[in-house]
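Researcher: I'd like a structural prediction for the single chain below. Treat it as a standalone chain; there are no partners to consider.
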Amino acid sequence: MRNCKIIILMMLLSFLFFTACASQNKSEKPLHVSDYSESAAKYMPLEIGNRWVYRVNYLGSVGEIEVVINARNEEWFVDNKGGKFLIDRRGIRDKDRYILMFPLQREEWVTIVDPRTREIRRTVGVDEKVNVPAGTFEGAIKVHTLVDLPENRVMHTYHYFVADVGIVKIDTVLENVREGKLVPQTSTELVEYFIKGSKS
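Model: Treating it as a single chain, here is the predicted structure.
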């Protein structure tokens, strides 16, 4: 038990040392983390009463879902599906992951959901044009998510974020790496929305 405590203490000290070293540049001035919360809030308008209606096509079966922000739990906004969202200085996140990070650079970010599931995200477009039932939107941010699955399969998900609207489209595609096949799985498209007193 004593050895375990010593190892943990050494790891903590090493972490603090490397963090301190990494926080300084050549002129010995600390680097400051920029605050992107204002930009992030534009791409996910979180306010009680905001509402989005989506048409979902799952392997040919079509239906609609309505997502409404109906509660707030401290800094988290909660929707009617049990989803929880938060805006902070790094971007937009749900309870498990960042779904959009700033600045809008092409470096990937990784989320370990559980010991067997790793999600890799990357911003692959910052000026996309998207056509959905709610209209045509320009200047959308496109985020690609990759998840490795058993049996040489990969799930690709594409989220499209539009300023002052939120998520307008989500596409998922299953890739069979061994056979080189791509099979569309779902398409979720915005039908109408209600943001800050303005209805589509």
